[in-house]
Amino acid sequence: MFLAPERLWWLLLVPVLVIAYIWATRRKGRQGMRFTNTAVLGRVVRKQSQWRRHLAVALSLASLVTLVLAWSRPNGVEKMPRERATVVLVIDVSRSMAATDVQPSRLEAAQQLSKEFLTQLPSQYNVAVVSLSGNPATRLSPTTDRVFANRAIDALSLQDSTAVGDALYVALSAIQMAPRGDDGSTAPGAIVLLSDGMNTAGRSPLQGAAEARRAEVPVYTIAYGTENGSVDLDGKRERVPPDRELMQQIADSSGGATFTAESAGDLSRVYENIGSEVGYEEVKKETTATWAGYGLAFAVLAALAAVSLGARWP
Predict the structure, then answer these.
(1) Counted domains in the chain
(2) Spatial distance between the Cα atoms of 66 and 293, rounded to a whole number of angstroms
(3) Which of 275, 274, 262 is nearest to 106 (CA)?
(4) Same domain membership, residue 156 and residue 117
(5) What CATH number should be reported for the domain holding residue 218?
(6) How far is CA 216 from CA 27, 94, 130, 146, 307, in A?
(7) CA–CA distance from 6 to each of 64, 76, 110 (Å)?
(8) Which of 144, 188, 256, 291 is in Cβ range 3.0-4.6 Å of 219 for a Cys bridge?
(9) Do 107 and 255 share a domain, yes or no?
(10) Angstrom distances, CA of residue 124 to CA of 72, 143, 295
(11) Model pLDDT for residues 251-265, shown as the tens digit of each residue
């Protein structure tokens, strides 16, 4: 993207100059054919290096292109650390989290690694904790106190059912509880949703994801556990594979991203990736100086190539 795109029309000079250079080169070649005594011509006119002449022209054209681009005021995107944000951890506590395919159990591993995730976030970030079950609830309102956050995560215990959609609405409400800035604005929010099962109760998860998009709150989903995970429910062994498709749909609908974690090591890496996502924002930045620097570099190289053509080398 350019702030002055109309200046890009000057790039049409490049093909014109290329055509003129080719024409001049061929015309010079035809004139050279008038001399039949090439030995005499060689003593009168010193032979120039073809590749050096072509290189000098190519570098000059490259300098012209980059300087025109710089003159057109290009815009780039740079990731800048956020000054403040509110991150809501939504952790599944349904009965399927008792599965031991992730050691020592899905829930215990998630609790430990969720606390480690909090250490990766800037200290000024607010953190809230929401439990995901058939009756989702805010276990910790937004706070910068990591001790309270760790205690809230440790206090999570297994409950019945999984209402993913309702949990998203609870998380959005938690973001509104965050302290406002000096100008009265709400800090940017993000939801990190870790779930290992299918939605079994409450409102549609995709409705919750759509509401998150309207609020400009991306949802980063983690499909947690393996396909072979199982738990004993009412005396029966039940398989509890993660619903990866639902997690993908929620992330896509909300403008977030989805991840898969089949082990504690996977979950640790996922949290690290999410930390870098929510910790930075993309900011447009004019890159005129960068392109002008490229143009200057090409111009210096073109000048050196031109000097090389005029110099007499031993």
Answers:
(1) 2
(2) 9
(3) 262
(4) yes
(5) 3.40.50.410
(6) 63, 28, 19, 25, 58
(7) 16, 18, 54
(8) 256
(9) yes
(10) 39, 9, 41
(11) 999 999 999 999 999
Indicate if the pLDDT at residue 143 is higher than 50. yes
Query: What is the residue range of 95's domain?
Result: 80-283
Task: State mean pLDDT over 215-237.
Answer: 91
Q: How confident is the model at residue 41 (pLDDT cuts 50, 70, 90)?
A: very low
| Residue at token pair 């980063």 | 220
pTM greater than the 0.70 cutoff: no
Same-domain status, 144 and 105: yes
pLDDT per position as a tens digit, 267-298: 999 998 888 777 666 667 778 888 888 888 98
Judge contact between 113 and 268, C-beta under 8 A. Answer: yes
Same domain, residue pair 127 and 211 = yes
Token pair belonging to 92: 């599944």
- Residue 73 Rama label (left phi>0; alpha psi -120 to 50; beta): left
Q: What is the residue type of 91?
A: I
Spell out the residues 6+ positions from residue 107 whose beta carbon is closer than 8 angstroms to its own: 93, 97, 98, 156, 158
